[in-house]
Amino acid sequence: MNRIKVKCPGTVANLVCGFDILGLALNEPSDIMELRLLDKPEVIIHNRDNYNLPTEPERNVAGVVLLSMIEKLEKPVGFDVTIEKHIKPGSGIGSSAASAAGAAVAANLLLGNLFSPDEVVQFAMNGEKLASGVKHADNIAPCILGGISLIRSIHPLDIVSIPSPDLFVTVVHPQIEVRTSDARQILKQQVLLKDAIRQWGNIAGLVTGFMKNDYDLIGRSLEDVIIEPVRSILIPGFDEVKKQCKEAGALGGGISGSGPSVFMLSRNEKDARVVETVMKDVYTRIGIDFNTYVTTINKKGVEVVSGE
Amino acid sequence: MNRIKVKCPGTVANLVCGFDILGLALNEPSDIMELRLLDKPEVIIHNRDNYNLPTEPERNVAGVVLLSMIEKLEKPVGFDVTIEKHIKPGSGIGSSAASAAGAAVAANLLLGNLFSPDEVVQFAMNGEKLASGVKHADNIAPCILGGISLIRSIHPLDIVSIPSPDLFVTVVHPQIEVRTSDARQILKQQVLLKDAIRQWGNIAGLVTGFMKNDYDLIGRSLEDVIIEPVRSILIPGFDEVKKQCKEAGALGGGISGSGPSVFMLSRNEKDARVVETVMKDVYTRIGIDFNTYVTTINKKGVEVVSGE
Q1: Containing H/E element for A13?
Q2: Residue B175 CB contacts under 8 Å (≥ 6 apart), including other chains
Q3: Which pLDDT tens digit goes with each residue over B254-264?
Q4: Which pLDDT score is estimated for B133?
């Protein structure tokens, strides 16, 4: 195989109480990436969208991933990459992770699965390092694997798939800029033990709720007493959207990744559509442009569209 | 029914990474309690053991539980209580919780299940308040319900049963005194966010491991970067016991509750017996008296032995 086209899903990281350790993959939106093998150790990037992302490999998320992979190869191999982004950069639904994960998975397939799944995640994390300054895997892992991923540990890497019931996800992306690196910097380095205890009760509850198909427990556990109170200040309308969405039937939700997107989980499509209407109403009234998505959990992760 | 005899299991709280939110019930040791209805609002306590615990109801764990229950009753009712403790007070395997939970469950049965399960837990928590100064439920809940309990939240009370595979539990109780209140006071009120993140990764991993019957994941997740480094200093031989037990085949383990008992989980009885030998060797060499138990998870919780 010399050429491969993959579909790379958007992802929601953190899942409210699981900062840096939980994420889920979305069926919408997703990017398309096409990779072609080259016989020189170089990376050539073409953007087929209007986001004007850098095409120098060292400054491009997919580029640094592929460069890090090329470094480990014994043979002179390179990649020509065409990226068609539909996940808006900076939206908080894993745009950089989609590029990084897509590049790593597609390149590894072109190399005949030379690297293990954990190594593929490690390569992809180099893209997150470029995008946000931190090698986190809570978007990368679900993007690659699909479903809900727990990153129990980064050193050593320990990724666990969490089964879940069918869930509908409504996302609103208010068109404001929240830089992931800024969203990290405003966090306090110390937290109260009593808050940490409340948080780990919720995390354990959320994971148990997913695995027991217990929608009410999922809803009760979607509470974040540590990160959300700090970060939500960066997102206009956050408190109102959250309150009204829950009143409208959402199980719960919060900031997607480091924002500015806000996501809500619902037990059925009808609720998820009502939640979308609430989100639209709030941001229309506030006067901020927005996109919304009503979608479900993507169970497949990065998916091969075609290859030859 | 005017008289009831119940068996009240010992419990292991915290389960390493789940400080204040996780606990499991043991098949050994357990207390026996006998309650008799009285027609006056009073509590009479008889100790049928050698621990010299207070018999004034206001100073007795079972006593305060029953007094708090009597306060809520419209009719003049009291209880005559005989306690036969086998769970040594101060051992760290839920001695006070057994008395508190046993009293609450037995009294409620004598009252014809007047109170809801959550109310029974709430009454029992008054006993923990007397014993340790804090109303925690991570011994009470598994003692009453059996199995592994998650206390997602105390306010409001939210208890979730966590399914688990068969596990063997080896406990060593070195005969030194660690007061629960002291063990709480030495904890730092603030923790590093990065440590909290590591901890909640482990908690999510542990719960997932239990529910997926994944012994290796259970083992990897039995790591505590917040409480154990501080509290283990109070327990001579802790680091050595832990290291050697894991080398001998234990999945992992740590301080039981606030200590001084140390527990280890194993996947089969053979491993659990080898672990017991290791524990005995370490404490024999250090020269501290000890008890050990090799047991399994109690799935029933407080159990009626007889009633008439």
Answers
A1: strand A3-13
A2: B288, B289, B290, B291
A3: 999 999 999 99
A4: 86
CATH code for the structural domain at B3-162:
3.30.230.10
Record: contact A150-B197, CB cut-off 8 A: no
Distance of alpha carbon A204 from alpha carbon B14, whole angstroms = 13
**Angle between the N-to-C axes of helices B269-286 and B238-247, in degrees from 0 to 180, rounded to the nearest 10:** 150
Between β-strands A190-192 and A148-153, what pairing exists: parallel, antiparallel or unpaired?
unpaired
Euclidean distance between CA atoms A163 and A146, whole angstroms: 11
* Structural domain A3-162+298-307, CATH architecture: 2-Layer Sandwich (3.30)
Domain ranges of chain B: 3-162, 168-296
pLDDT in tens, A263-301: 999 999 999 999 999 999 999 999 999 999 999 999 999
- pLDDT band for position B179 (cuts 50, 70, 90): confident
Q: Do B152 and A192 make contact, defined as CB atoms within 8 angstroms?
A: no
Give the closest residue to A140 by CA, choosing from A110, A100, A103. A100
Residue to test with chain B: of A197, A198, A218, A224, most B Cβ within 10 A? A197
Cβ-defined contact of B160 to A22 (cutoff 8 Å):
no
Three-class secondary structure of residue B303 per DSSP: strand
Q: Which value does ipTM take for this structure? A: 0.95
Inter-chain CB pairs, A–B, below 8 Å: 127
Q: Is residue B94 predicted with pLDDT exceeding 90?
A: yes
Q: What is the CATH number of domain B168-296?
A: 3.30.70.890
A284 near B CB under 8 A: no
Please report, as a single letter, which amino acid is at residue B64.
Answer: V
Annotated catalytic residue A58: no
Q: Are A228 and B258 in contact, with CB atoms under 8 Å apart?
A: no
Closest C-alpha to A136, from A257, A260, A226, A235: A257
